[in-house]
Automatic annotation (TrEMBL):
This is Uncharacterized protein. InterPro entries: ARM-like, ARM-type_fold, HEAT6. Residues 316-335 are annotated as: Disordered. It comes from the Eukaryota.
Length: 335
């Protein structure tokens, strides 16, 4: 019964292909039935040839500018390739990739997410067989598709576009690499938008793509080390509290070796010792002079400062002074 079902769908596609009228309603109904089909049967090795035939018929019957049929065809392709991990053979891959790229260029933006998700699944499942088409894929994905988005969220379109670029990074080589890197730099140069989660996804995918290129090509990393370090420094604290966006700039090495100067040694010269001894002698002489100076029972230690009188009492008025002198005179007479 299950094999009959796949045989039935294959016969239906063949019938539509041989029909000169090419009714879109029949094709639309057939795609709806396949998208509702038990997807576990797609991963069976016995059904691989039938699945290949069905997909090839989809690519030949669905025009790239028919937005709704393109979206349904991409949903079917995502189910087969992305969810059930069915790897496309090289002949079918040579048809699926150009069809997806033409659909991105000709369909309305409402189908962008379906196309990009299906394309990302194809790239991830067939990365070893896609190097020959990498130039064409990069040329299409470097275009800012999010600027054309009006019926879908531009941030979501940009996230999936960058995710496709990240998946394609291991296959990008030769003359295609400068354009690929330039597209990544442009994504990092854009100021953050209101959607912080989408911006975080874009930065994450771009850094992962750069990491993959650095791993695969050490010579390229040596030539572009300043640019890579500038990106790392600019986004080192990305997502942390208080982080502020700054455009990555190239870091260049210093012209010469730099080191911290050593601390100045503490050398005690003879001149400093003589000066210190002289200062201590002058201080001792001032103390002795202050001790010898006495005026009316008051010892003057420093100019402008007076100590307590020798008798231990302060005289506050002229009458107290006269009383004190009179008492002293009487004591002298008695003596």
């Amino acid at each position: 019964m299950e094999k009959k079902s796949l045989d039935y769908y294959a016969c239906q596609f063949n019938s539509i292909n041989n029909d000169n009228r090419k009714e879109d309603s029949r094709l639309n109904n057939l795609l709806d039935q396949l998208n509702a089909f038990d997807c576990k049967l797609f991963s069976s090795p016995d059904n691989s040839k039938k699945i290949t035939f069905i997909l090839s018929q989809c690519f030949s019957l669905v025009p790239p500018d028919d937005t709704f049929l393109v979206a349904k065809c991409c949903q079917l392709m995502l189910t087969i390739v992305g969810k059930q991990a069915v790897q496309l053979e090289k002949p079918l891959l040579n048809i699926a990739v150009p069809w997806s790229l033409h659909a991105l260029q000709q369909s309305a933006d409402i189908a962008f997410l379906d196309i990009l998700q299906a394309l990302e699944a194809i790239i991830c499942s067939s990365i070893s067989n896609i190097e020959e088409m990498a130039d064409e894929i990069v040329a299409t994905l470097c275009v800012e598709l999010e600027s054309k988005a009006s019926l879908t969220t531009p941030q979501d379109v940009r996230v999936w576009r960058v995710q496709c670029l990240k998946a394609l990074a291991p296959a990008v080589k030769g003359s295609c690499r400068p354009k690929f890197i330039h597209s990544l730099w442009q994504l990092l140069q854009q100021s953050p938008s209101v959607n912080c989660d989408a911006d975080a996804q874009v930065v994450k995918f771009v850094l992962e793509a750069l990491e993959k290129i650095c791993e695969l090509d050490g010579e390229w990393l040596t030539d572009n080390l300043g640019d890579v370090l500038g990106v790392v420094v600019a986004f080192l604290q990305f997502g942390l509290y208080g982080w502020q966006y700054q455009k990555p700039s190239k870091l260049l090495p210093l012209p010469g070796a730099q080191w911290d100067p050593p601390p100045a040694p503490n050398i005690k010269s003879k001149a400093k010792r003589r000066q210190k001894k002289r200062v201590s002698n002058i201080g001792a002489m001032e103390v002795e002079d202050g001790a010898e100076e006495r005026t009316a029972g008051v010892a003057v230690t420093k100019p402008g400062y007076m100590s307590a009188p020798v008798s231990g009492a302060w005289l506050t008025s002229d009458s107290e002074l006269s009383d004190n002198e009179g008492g002293r005179t009487r004591r002298l007479r008695r003596a």
